Amino acid sequence: MSTVEESSSMSLNFNLPHESIYSDAKVAQVIVPGVAGEYGVTADHVPVVAQMKAGVLQILHEGVAEPEKYFVAGGFSITHPNSVTDISCPEAVRLDDIDSAAVTSAFEEAKSKFSNAESGSVAQAEAQIDMDVNRSMGAALGLTLV
Asked: What are the CA-CA distances from residue 5 to residues 9, 10, 79, 90, 121 (Å)?
């Protein structure tokens, strides 16, 4: 028989190719930056598979007011019917560990590469991706990069 406490928490598995950040961690909620929009997952959430966009993944721990925030470059979120959510993404970094000056510099470098690349080239597409990721990272830090 489950208790109220058990049903109010969910299990989170948060994995990168090179590291497991959380494995079966009990959390209150996860806020996912989905491609179709940001959404929250709690215990007993309906099953869902969602592609994530570059943005902020928030993890709300039981009894902690402030969420733990990670910038993710994309990936997938899979919520199972048993209150387990798997987050899998190519890269994630704690928001507090991001240097805003480095983000601004990387954005400007990508912008320069984009404008100097041949129209429609692979180099231009790669520069566009770099610009988009750094713009999203900047937005997560409160920067406006144009």
From this structure: 7, 10, 20, 33, 54
Specify which residues 75 forms β-bridges with.
52
Residue 97 CA to residue 118 CA, distance in Å, equals: 34
- 120 backbone φψ class: left, alpha, beta (φ>0; ψ -120 to 50): left
Q: Is the pTM of this model over 0.90?
A: no
Q: Using CA of residue 110, residue 116, residue 120, residue 123, what is the dihedral sign?
A: negative
Residues 98 and 81: beta-carbon distance below 8 Å? no
CB 48 within 8 A of CB 37: no
Whether the CB-CB separation of 74 and 137 falls below 8 Å is answered with no
pLDDT digit string (tens) for 28-73?
A: 999 999 999 999 999 999 999 999 999 999 999 998 989 999 999 8
Q: What is the largest CA-CA distance in the chain?
A: 64
d(CA 2, CA 97): 38
Q: 102, 85, 68: which is closest to 34 by C-alpha?
A: 85
**Rounded CA separation 104/88 (Å):** 27
